[in-house]
Amino acid sequence: MEKLPKIGIPVIIIAILLIILIAKSAITIESGQAGVLYRTFDNGVVTDEPPLGEGFHVVAPWNKVFVYEVRQQELFEKLRVLSSNGLEIQIDASVWYQPVVSDLGNLHQTLGENYLQRVIQPAIRSAARSVVGRYTPEQLYSSKRDAIQDEIFEETKKILTKQYVQLNEILVRDVTLPTTIKEAIERKLRQEQESLEYEFRLVTASKEAEKVIIEAQGKAESNRILSASLTDKILQDKGIDATLKLSESPNTKVIVIGAGDSGLPLILGDN
To answer: Does 88 share its domain with 164?
Structure first.
């Protein structure tokens, strides 16, 4: 076996070193990520330049790149907090967040890669305690879920404003009350509903009674007016008209005998 030339060994060593350096210098940033450059011999974390974007990058082998997920991320939280009267309430919430890309260097320098545990979770828990403590269990169970969701979001957002984190949304998925409190609230709501139904039936019956009274009063007034307008002369004329119509019937035999007490003809006949 032929020996390699003396000059060949250094070339091979240099080539190997170059390959190692290139491998250590080549950085690929995946989709939805960004990189924070750390210059070992030049002030450490780079905060005055934009972070490294998606794609292939070459950096000095003695420098480092810390890769962050910059897409929107979701955190599921089960929060145990106290209501205004001291009862423990469990809130299940979803939190949508992401780092501020332009401040990624500052985020890395001040909070590091575990910024979720350092600032986001404590901020949410603090805001939830503050907000829920303003309401009773009944309000949380029925009418105030949307309100507490918005208030927790606003208070958390204030805390995170200067933490280089962007809070997009907080969604309250469920509010769990102690079983005895939940049953008491449901029972009260049923009673209120039944009371409303009973009041509605009373109002309906009252209106129906008023309608009957008004109709009766109208009929009585009509009869009074009619009675007052019927004189003996009018009654006599109507009687004559009725007699004439009766006499015109082909099934009636009419015999005029004289006059009755009312002055009308007496009619005898059969069919």
So the answer is: yes
